[in-house]
């Protein structure tokens, strides 16, 4: 009986020692932040504002963040490396400024998207072939944050760096995003974001919704066709 009691006390003591040892080992184990790459080739500041806040926050949490963009941070940030990419010509900047400042009329927006397609694709392609990108092309990253704006072919960076890609699209959900993410297209029940926030659609609104969606799908098909030469 005394021997059994002795073994029980010894077993409890050994369990406490084992638990304490595990806690010490876990507490002393090194913890490494992720290596994160942000790629924002389009020189439109509004596309970069909220993403830059996210990337700065990740750097403050100890992750190692590398960002390619036209907008350097104000002052040095720990764990944050910014690589300045070349800015576009004045004519191209004019197109980007119109894209970001003109009113959101439906057909006006589609017209600007089509007119700005050449500049946007060329800008993204120039970024991939720039000396700035070649500086990091052979580095390793754990995650990529990618600006999605008429440059879907850049998703291939995930295959190049062998890591996941998080796409950032600075606009409400659309047929383009639904197609990329696998979301269903609910034309009959959810109004297009350019139709407003109405929860109930009349027959006329459903008809307009169908028309807007059809035009948008056609435009994105043209954009997808134009992008194929960059894959």
From TrEMBL:
Keywords: Glycosyltransferase, Transferase. The keyword Transferase applies. One of its GO terms (molecular function) is UDP-glycosyltransferase activity. InterPro entries: UDP-glycosyltransferase. Gene3D superfamilies: Glycogen Phosphorylase B (3.40.50.2000). Belongs to the UDP-glycosyltransferase family. This is Uncharacterized protein.
